[in-house]
Amino acid sequence: MISDNLESVRRNITAVAHRCGRNPEEIRLVAVSKTFPVLDMKEAMTSGQFLFGENYIQEAEEKYNELDDQVQLHFIGHLQSNKAHIAARIFRMIETVDRIKLALMLNRNLIQSGRTMDILIQVNIGRDEKKSGIGPQDTEDLLKQIAPLSNLRSLGLMTMPPFSEDPEKSRPYFRELYQLAKDLQSKKLFYDNKCVELSMGMSHDYPVAIEEGATLIRVGTAIFGHRQ
User: Which one, of 191, 44, 29, 200, lies nearest residue 122 by Cα?
Assistant: First the structure.
C-alpha cells in the first residue's frame, strides 16, 4: 500500500509541476512518518523514499538509532531549546527555527560535534496565535541574527497555513510566503540566494503549494494512511 501511495503522489507531483511550467526535480517529497513505525519507513525506502519528516524528538531519535545514515530526517515540529543537542545530532534539516535562542543552542551543539546544519525559518503566515512560527514582519531580523552563526545555513522558509478542507483557501498563504521569500532573497539574506527553499503543502493541499512555488512538500496521510 505504501509503495503504491508513494507512486501515486510522485505521479501527481510530476503532473502538477508540468501543468504550471515547473521542473518536477525542483520539488522534494518529505514523507511525514511521525507516529508510524520503522517498518513502514522501510517499506517506503524500498520504493526509493529516504527523506522523512518527524515531529517528536524521542521518537525520531529511536528511529535514527535504528536507521542511521540510511535516511535523511527533517524536523518539522516545535523544537524545545533543551532538546537542541539531540536535534543537532540526528537531523539533516530543522524546518522550524523561529527564534534566536533556539538557533544559538543548535549552533553551539553543532560546533561541539563539528557538524553544519541546514535550517528553514518557520513563518506564522496565518498569524495564528495557536501556531508556532515567527511573524512575517520579524523574519528579516531573525535571518540577520542567524547569519553570523557559523554552523547554521538558513536556506529558506517554512509555513503551515490555517487548516481548511478546501485546498484553495491555502493559496493566499502560500503566495504570501513566496513573496516574502522573494523579498528576503533580493536582500541576500539566505545562505544560498540562488536557490531558496520553500517548505509548504501537506497531503490535502500540496498541489496548490507546488503551483505557488513549494520546493519541499510534507506528505504523511497520502503515503502512510490515517494515524491512529
Answer: 200
